[in-house]
Amino acid sequence: MTVLESLKKYSVVVADTGDIEAIARLKPQDATTNPSLLYNAAQKPEYQHLVQDAMEEAEKHGGDEKHQTEAFMDALFVSFGREILKHIPGRVSTEVDASLSFDTEGTIAKARGLINMYEKFGINRERVLIKIASTWEGIRAAERLEREGIHCNLTLLFSFAQAVACAEAKVTLISPFVGRIYDYYKKENGGKDIPIDQDPGVASVTRIYNYFKKYDYKTVVMGASFRKVEQIERLCGCDLLTISPDLLEKMQQTEGELTPQLTPEKAKASKDEKLHLDEKTFRWMHNEDAMATDKLAEGIRRFYADARKLEQYARTLVGEKVTA
C-alpha cells in the first residue's frame, strides 16, 4: 500500500491545482483552485479550449472592456471548475476575488453570480464551494450564503479566533494554512527547520479539529498549504487535506501505512473551553496573534496580486477581441 492510498482511508484528499491532467492522474475526491493556479494553467496549450469557452461566455455579456474582462475571469473560473468536476466525484472550490475580502455585500453578490453560472451549465451548487478569505466581513458573507444553500470554503485561516467564528457562522468548510504558519515561525527561528512534533502549523490544525469535534460543530476542517509530507502524515484523520500535486506524487510513490493522528475520540479529551465571539472579541483575539494578523494581511495581498496578474492576462485577450 502507498502512503497516499493509506491516507485516503482516513482523510478526504483534495488536489490543490488547476492542472486537470494531474487531477485525472492522482484521483482526489475534491479540488481547489485560485487565480495563480488558473493563470498558470491557462497558459498551457492543452487548456486553450477552456480559455476560448470563457472568452465566448464573456462576449455574451457585452459592455466595455472592463466589464468583459471581469466576465471573462468569472467564466474562466467556472470553465476550469466544470472541467475539473468531470474528473472528481466531489466538489471544486472557486475563489472570490481578494479585493472583496472586506466587502460583505460584494462577496455575496460575486458568490451568487458564480453559482448562477455553474447552475446555468447544469452543475448542482452542492458540488461547488465558494472560497472566501476568513476576515470578519468574509465570515459574515459566508454565514448568509450558507442560509441560501451556497456552501463556502473559508481560506487564509491562521488564528483560532477565525476558526471559532467560522464554526459559529455554520460555514461548510475551513482551510487552515499549515505551511504558511510553519514559514512564519521558521523565519522567526532564524531559518532553522522546526521538528515535526513542534510544528506550529500542525498544532494549529490539531487544536481546531479537536475543538470542532468536541463541541459537535458541523463545519469540517481541511488542512492546507503543506511544505512536507510529514506535516500531512501528522494530520492523518483530519476531515480533508488539500495537497499540491508534487506532494501527492511523493506519497503515491512511497510505500507505507499511516495511523490516524486526529480522531473524534481524542478530540473529546481536549481542553479548550467553548467560546462565543462577537465582532469585538473576534477582532481582539485575532489581533493578539501576531502571526495570524501578519499572514492574513500578507495572504490577501498575495491573492490580490495573483488575481491582478490573471486580470491583466484577461484584459489582453479581451482587448484583442474588442478592437478586432
Question: How would you describe this structure to a colleague?
Answer:
With 324 residues, the protein is α/β, with parallel strands linked by helices. The chain has one domain: Aldolase class I (TIM Barrel). The chain has 15 helices and 8 strands. An 8-stranded parallel β-barrel has the order 1-2-3-4-5-6-7-8, surrounded by 7 helices. The model has no long low-confidence stretch (mean pLDDT 94).
Spans of at least 5 consecutive residues whose pLDDT stays below 50 are: none
Could you say what the CATH architecture is? Alpha-Beta Barrel
Approximate strand percentage:
5-15%
CATH fold topology: TIM Barrel
In the sheet with the most strands, the strands line up as 1-2-3-4-5-6-7-8
* Anisotropy-based shape: globular
Largest sheet: 8 strands, parallel, barrel
CATH class: Alpha Beta
Helical proportion?
A: 55-70%
The CATH superfamily is known as Aldolase class I
Query: What is the total domain count?
Result: 1
Counting helices, strands and paired strands, the structural category is alpha/beta
Write a compact overview of the structure shown.
This protein has 15 helices and 8 strands.
